[in-house]
Amino acid sequence: xxxxxxxxxxxxxxxxxxxxxxxxxxxxxxxxxxxxxxxxxxxxxxxxxxxxxxxxxxxxxxxxxxxxxxxxxxxxxxxxxxxxxxxxxxxxxxxxxxxxxxxxxxxxxxxxxxxxxxxxxxxxxxxxxxxxxxxxxxxxxxxxxxxxxxxxxxxxxxxxxxxxxxxxxxxxxxxxxxxxxxxxxxx
Length: 187
Ligand SMILES: Cc1cc2nc3c(=O)[nH]c(=O)nc-3n(C[C@H](O)[C@H](O)[C@H](O)COP(=O)(O)O)c2cc1C
Fold this sequence. Notes:
Mean pLDDT: 97
Strand order of the largest sheet: 1-2-4-3
CATH class: Alpha Beta
Oligomer: single chain
CATH architecture: 3-Layer(aba) Sandwich
Bound molecules: flavin mononucleotide
Strand content: 5-15%
Low-confidence stretches: none
């Protein structure tokens, strides 16, 4: 099996991390992999905000919890509201993947392609990752936006389509769940 196939099959969502930070150079590789993903009409609207400071990542969790509590009907109210919830599962690096939606009609799949590239790049470096989806649900909250823009230099007007935690796994990488998707072939 070639190395790319091996990495695809070995990538798994990791939800328990060591505190040890990823070297900055490897983090740059992960970001670069994201920015090299395909985008509709090559509009390249993807922006990645990298947060590597524990206090700031903890603030993201707190601000998210506060924003969810302010909203009625947020689908993650119970999940995010629980005492154990954090946006990063204890991982030392957190990335927010957003896009300038005024430039394209394919921002969501563009960001998804970026994220999968990032996960695969991370796995190739023995770094674990996990998609974290809740931030997009509070993107329209004025207080949360103010926090993002002031503290994380998040680009005003961008929409969050996914986030991810990155770090070295605590213990082994999880095993792949059984595959349920299929394919049909016509030759
Ligand atoms: C769009 C999307 C959103 C996800 N959101 C979350 C999330 O918020 N929290 C989480 O722990 N995992 C999240 N995941 C990870 C999935 O739970 C995970 O990919 C799935 O259970 C399969 O496991 P694997 O990644 O190890 O193959 C998300 C994955 C995708 C593709």
